[in-house]
Amino acid sequence: MRYNQLGNTGLFVSEICLGTMTFGAAGEGNIWGAIADVDQKVADRIVERSLAAGVNFIDTADVYSFGESEKLLGQALTNLGVPRKDVVVATKVYGLMGDKPNDRGASRGHIMDSVEASLERLQTDHVDLYQIHATDTVTPIDETLRALDDLVSRGLVRYVGVSNWQAWRIAKALGISERRGFARFEAVQAYYSIAGRDLERDIVPMMQEEKLGLMVWSPLAGGLLSGKYGPGAPGNGEGRRASFDFPPVDKDRAWACVAVMREIAEKHGTSVATVALAYILAKPFVTTVIIGAKRVEQLDQNLAAVNLKLDTADLTKLDEVSALAPEYPGWMLARQEAGRRPEPFQPKA
């Protein structure tokens, strides 16, 4: 297990982050009924196995099973007697947590109320990384950033991050934080997979320029890239995708990727899912890959990705089958940049 610097901080996090969206069971009639199915006993085992494998980074959110995920995680760390300093706990705020007008969003009021509730559920006095879970088009960015900065000043939060924002909005927030002396975003949590590399167009270049960490969510595209789905799949494709088809993925593109990954998996004697994760881990701009599990056996398969080193031929095949179509202004920038650097001077004979 490797440890990478989170953004422009001195904090190191494991290349695998345990995601806890599967913790809890919120019942029928909402998305958590299709995703979450882990009780306290299993949560304890999953957390214990992750820590034993070298994972020191765990991500959750207040909205996961409406707070149940945070509760199960907090209790698991207590049950296992994990020293607080040995684990980096990340959670998120924004999602709908009640039926009142101010029970969601990134307003100062909702952030202040939510962090206290999260700390209580997690049984801790601070959150290592507090993330805004979604874009709030109502609340001014300044208001959100000031609230987060106050939490850092009070010691309730150590670092702040953002999830599912556009590149321009993140850049704007960074500029505001720099001008006003606020704690800045240090990490971006975003969807990225071999079948969905859109992040590389704008967000990745911005992150590299600004020294932000990348936390990848759904690297298997909601299980679509696990090898259980598509032409030639060994099973009937049961799983989360059968009842919750998310995130959106071009299926033809995904099946082409799976076909190549299946060949590479056979070559290395491993699974399609392990290859999909290893491909994302091989990207130099990725700080950590978030993996979730409902069973310890599933967790072990995902953890195996850290030991799979894809060779140059493997990576080339995967890059080619998943390459993004040229898009403006990218293709124009590439054209105009060609020949911009002078050729080395060659003295005349």
TrEMBL record:
One MF annotation (Gene Ontology) recorded for this entry: 17-alpha,20-alpha-dihydroxypregn-4-en-3-one dehydrogenase [NAD(P)+] activity
CDD domains, A to Z: AKR_PsAKR (cd19091)
UniProt entry keywords in alphabetical sequence: Oxidoreductase
Pfam families: Aldo_ket_red
Taxonomic superkingdom: Bacteria
Keyword Secreted recorded: no
Keyword Flavoprotein among record annotations: no
One Gene Ontology cellular component annotation held by this UniProt entry: cytosol
EC id: 1.1.1.149
Top-level EC class: oxidoreductase
Domain NADP-dependent oxidoreductase, residue spans: 15-322
PANTHER family according to UniProt: NAD(P)-LINKED OXIDOREDUCTASE SUPERFAMILY PROTEIN, NADH-SPECIFIC METHYLGLYOXAL REDUCTASE-RELATED
Name the record gives this protein: Aldo-keto reductase family 1 member C1 homolog
